[in-house]
Amino acid sequence: MNLSTESQAGFLCTDRLVKRFDAVAAVDDVSLAIRKGEIFALLGPSGCGKSTLLRMLAGFEAPSAGAVLLDGVNIASMPPYERPINMMFQSYALFPHLSVWDNIAFGLRREGLPKAEISERVEGMLRLVQLTAFAKRKPHQLSGGQQQRVALARSLAKRPQLLLLDEPLGALDKKLREQTQFELVNIIESVGVTCVMVTHDQEEAMTMASRIAVMRQGKVLQVGTPREIYEQPNCRFVADFIGNVNLFEGQLQQTSPGRSEISSPEGVLAVAHSVSGTSDPIGTAVSLAVRPEKIHIAKSRPDVSDNLFTGKVREIAYFGSYSTFIVDMPSGKSVKITEGNTARQDENPITWGDEVFFWWDSAAPVLLTQ
Amino acid sequence: MKLFLTQTFRPGRRFVIGVPFVWLGVFFVVPFLILLRISITDMGNGIDPFAPLFDSSDGTWRWLFKFDNYAAIFRAAADGAGLVANGLGQTIYMDAYITSLKYAFFTTVFCLLIGYPFAYFIARARPSIRPALLMMVMLPFWTSFLLRVYAWKGILADQGVINNALMAVGLIDEPIVMLYTDVSMLVGMTYVYLPFMVLPLYATLVKMDFRLLEAAHDLGASPWKAFWLITVPLSKAGIISGAMLVFIPSVGEFVIPSLLGGAENIMIGRVVWDEMFSSNNWPRASALAVAMVCLILFPLALYYHYSAQTRAPSAD
Would B19 be classed as within a structural domain? Predict the structure, then answer.
């Protein structure tokens, strides 16, 4: 087998993995290398193939082509019940007829461990997820958060080499979600298991994962740390999918190592980096991505020359710690700007209909060619 | 007070609850009481069809209950035929009850063994074709029950479809006797009662979350283990109701044994019929019928006990 270089490093690797349903490729030529001990997130909109990829790792779907290597061993054709991999299901899939204790013990019993060891490990898991008092309850007698912890305990009880999380917080309400995601990460890190999670919620991926793979239509677009994905997206889709972004379309006018300029309907946009790759990039259509929090807004003209624009405030949304402004530019384009509410009282606040100036540092935006 | 008023005097509500009660009263309780009354008397003297229950001719009330008919189930008549030392005899009634229970039991087992894969397959089929598959299970009900049982005669007879086919192929030289044996009885009964097993099983299996099986595989259970540890316990309610729906009517089955059963396969339904219409001994027939109801009430009570227990954690 001829493995690509990426899959030679890493604890869990997928090598040119493909899954076709009829003629449609749900997962299309995906090669990933996941390091031991990291929490790796597969992020993408619904239908991007992330769940299918996860199910192939678990063994519920057989790959149409490619390999899944766990610690160097190809497990692509191994049935799920033989893989040293456990999964926490989105719906939790707790066995309704078994108590919390028996749910957690289920996997251990299948291994045929001695009774004393099973009960020791179940007790340990119950302590880990703080559910010792609930051991005798049935799943339907627990709250959503408690059920989630049982599901986690059950998937960790066998001490898997790889833990799979399918939308781990998807079934919880928002308040509980924030609290739970830190708890979940703490437990996973205390156990030290390598973890692959699937989510469509970028916030969940950003806070929990050490690295993220952004997927779209079966393909992996970018792999990186949450910061890399956010600050250096490699294409329009990633920039747009992760967080909020203002995209300006234009043509590349000039590019040099420290500075590029783009002509757009909004005017000339300056960026403090060059475009690499294409031999003659001048004139190509490019996009400029600027995050709303990197744009400054003021009623008086600031002392800057680059990337300074004017517009009229159409919407203001007050979020407490920050406010979001939607500003209409003369070209018709709307720009989203967020500003931290650092002062408690503003003498002369920006209000609806105000003519404002807004600008950003030329290091703030990212130039996208794809 | 207001709550009391709304709950007690809402006429629509009382009507809805009342209908099944009236139905049960008129078509089950009253006939059963009549049977009970007949079963504890003798045949009448020609003017009255049955002997009176009490006598007050001399001014005092005397009950004239007779339990001979019940005793006759366990003890053979005075001629002593089949009498054993402890007084309990191998009466034809006991034989018939045991035969009935035996056939009902095996019918239930076969229906479960055949019906379970059936129901499982339908429950896991694509939702769009499930109604068609269920329709196929129920389709035989469109044809007359008698015709369908008669058809088995043609299939199982010595010169029937199976024997002819096997002989034509050369697998056998002379016909295998199937008709009027245990084979034909069980084939007929299993065939007739199969839908009653499939439908409740389907109803519980279709509610089951099949991701639970994936979870079981994920935790190291082979498909077979996952079936035993997850699917079977979660379909327990369906297994019990299916078994009851097959077992209870099987015990009293009359038509199939008379068409497909042999002389030695006398079931209690046949005995009751004989006592009623051949011997014209209605009190005896009634006693046998009452005893059969008691025989069936016991598994029924077990069923309700179980279904009340398992109601809370259902498969969904």
Answer: no
Residue B79 structural domain = 40-45+64-310
Q: What's the rounded Cα separation, in Å, for the pair A224 and A32?
A: 11
Number of domain units in chain B: 1
State phi, psi for B79 to the nearest 5 degrees. -65, -10
Instruction: Specify whether A204 is located in the same domain as A95.
Output: yes
B219, B233, B315 member nearest A86 (Cβ): B219
- State the best of B207, B218, B228, B234 to mutate against chain A, taking most chain A CBs within 10 Å: B218
Cα gap B133→B136, rounded to integer Å: 5
Q: Which of A237, A267, A287 is the last residue of a domain?
A: A237
Q: List pLDDT tens digits, range A243-264.
A: 889 999 998 888 887 888 888 8
* CATH value at residue A86: 3.40.50.300
Tell if the CB–CB gap between B220 and A79 is shorter than 8 Å. no
The predicted complex's ipTM stands at 0.82
pTM for the model stands at 0.80
Residues from A in contact with B at Cβ < 8 Å: 58-60, 79-82, 85-87, 89, 91, 93-97, 106-107, 110-111, 138, 140, 154-155, 158
DSSP label of B50: B
In a domain, B296, yes or no: yes
Extract the tokens encoding A219: 């393909």
- The answer to whether B39 and B290 are in contact (CB under 8 A) is yes
The predicted structure's pLDDT at residue B77: 54
Task: Kindly state whether residue A41 falls inside one of the protein's structural domains.
Answer: yes
Contact A110 B211 (CB under 8 A): no
Cβ-defined contact of A81 to B230 (cutoff 8 Å): no
Question: What residues of chain A lie within 8 A of the CB of B234, using their CB?
Answer: 96-97
Give how far Cα A307 sits from Cα of A72, A153, A252, A270, A296, Å: 51, 52, 15, 6, 11
Q: pLDDT, tens digit, for every residue of A65-91?
A: 999 999 989 998 899 999 999 999 999
Query: Does B116 reside within a domain?
Result: yes
Residues A220 and A327 in one domain: no
- Chain A nearest C-alpha distance from B229 (Å): 10
Residue A146 sits in the same domain as residue A199: yes
